[in-house]
Amino acid sequence: MKPRILFPLVLAVICFPFLCCGADTAAEAAKIDKLVSEYVDRTGFTGTVLVSEHDQVVFKKGYGLANREWNVANAPDVKFRIGSITKQFTSMLVMQQVAKGKIKLDDHIPDYLPYYRKDTGSKVTIHQLLNHTSGIPSYTDDPKFFPEVSRTYYKVDDFVKKFCSGDLQFEPGSKFHYDNSGYFILGAILEHVTGKTYEELLKEKIFAPLGMNDSGYDHFDKVLPRRASGYQHGLGEVDNAPFLDMSLPYAAGSLYSTVEDLYKWDQALYTDRLLPADLKQRIFTPALQHYGYGWFIDMVASPDPGAGQTIIGHSGGINGFNTLEQRLVGDHDLIVLFSNTPGTNLDEMAIGIRAILYRQEPKLPKRSLSNTLGDTLVQHGVEAAVAQYRELKRTEPDAYNFAEERLNSLGSMLLRMDRIGDAITIFKLNAEEYPRSGNVYDSLAEAYERNGQKQLAIDNYRKATELDPKNQNAKDKLKALQGN
Fold it and tell me: Which of 327, 360, 383, 404 has CA 20 to 30 A from 266's CA?
């Protein structure tokens, strides 16, 4: 356990304050700021950060720009889309209805949505929707969803019928598969049970009681003061993130919030203000893959900072935004990280912040490989980028992140830009570097398929399935290309 520090002190740094209590905590805040600034410099992080220790906010600050076109700075009160962190609010609303006796965890989907197909829905319980063991396919797993569907508005029940009612992938309760469809269905059930919209329930049952005045359901057409814009790394530049109709993430991922409001939420979860203790305990009881109801619950493993502590949290990812929330409930610590230019490893940053809280030296981040190679590719071509990769790995192996996903993200970016030949070159390099990864061959096969090289696509999809028998996308693609 860490020493509890009780002496109040406020430090102002630039225009965003650290809220501190005591000289030791002021030193912690300075170390956190230094660490995050390294992520800004080395990985291009932009966003907001809040850290609380023993229930007291010890650090909060914004980095980079909330809006690049108008040069508006990020700050702790800037509103970000939080993606799948939304799910914990959905689970709370469901459990509130359980407390009232209006929803039963062992009931099945058609008990609340009479239109839902009976052959599958009668096998799936509310409990299984909450902990991702329903077997219902996730609509975001469909490779056609983002390019063909994500810009289109749907009414809730219409979307459930069309995109959340597929054949079961496995016997409900037997496996864990992260499932946005399940949480979309939960939102529909809440509306049918209460006669109110999901948005109305959030305001009435959670946000208003907790004073979370800077949180809500995000509508692209509404004027929302101090809303961050979302960005993505392009090839040698930063671009606006693609449009996403916010009716589609819905109860699985359509909320916005601030790091300050998530601190209010964190504090409320240590009380019984929103839900009786026994039902709250159900939310935080881990099942398969350490998932409860809208939360991952696990023990911090050695040698990570805070080893032995129970950590409850969730991440979020949605066009132009990455988010992470971690609660170390034994010490009442909280780390909230929001980014509006995805590309920084927020889990890694959180480990560094935890190191500071637990009086350890944090590891400094490595520089972004995909950003560096992207600049070279724009200026000198793909072969020069490949040569740079080999040279950097030879001369600066510890300075850059050479993980498999870094090259894969660069190749995927090239594929989105229809620079298919360049993408193939990058994916081939990745397969050379990681020959035992099924994912790299899946990516290479997709590029060959896009390039009309059918046999090479088949060969690489086959290799992907051999290395990763669970890769359903590669299996489906292989079956389609072989015509059987």
Answer: 360
pTM above 0.70, yes or no: yes
- In this prediction, residues 183-208 reach a mean pLDDT of 98
Domain ranges of the chain: 83-357, 369-482
Q: What is the 3-state secondary structure (H, E, C) of the chain?
A: CCCCCCCCEEEEECCEEEEECCHHHHHHHHHHHHHHHHHHHHHCCCEEEEEEECCEEEEEEEECEEECCCCEECCCCCEEECHHHHHHHHHHHHHHHHHCCCCCCCCEHHHCCCCCCHHHHCCCEHHHHHCCCCCCCCHHHCCCHHHHCCCCCCCHHHHHHHHCCCCCCCCCCCCCCCCHHHHHHHHHHHHHHHCCCHHHHHHHHHHHHHCCCCCEECCCCCCCCCECCCEEECCCCEEECCCCCCCCCHHHCCEEECHHHHHHHHHHCCCCCCCCHHHHHHHCCCCHHHECCCCEEEECCCCCCCCCCEEEEEEEEECCEEEEEEEECCCCEEEEEEECCCCCCHHHHHHHHHHHHCCCCCCCCCECHHHHHHHHHHHHCHHHHHHHHHHHHHHCCCCECCCHHHHHHHHHHHHHCCCHHHHHHHHHHHHHHCCCCHHHHHHHHHHHHHCCCHHHHHHHHHHHHHHCCCCHHHHHHHHHHHCC
Q: pLDDT grade, residue 15 (50/70/90)?
A: very low
Q: Give the model confidence (pLDDT) of 306-315 as tens digits.
A: 999 999 999 9
Per CATH, the number for 369-482 is 1.25.40.10
Q: What is the CATH number of domain 83-357?
A: 3.40.710.10
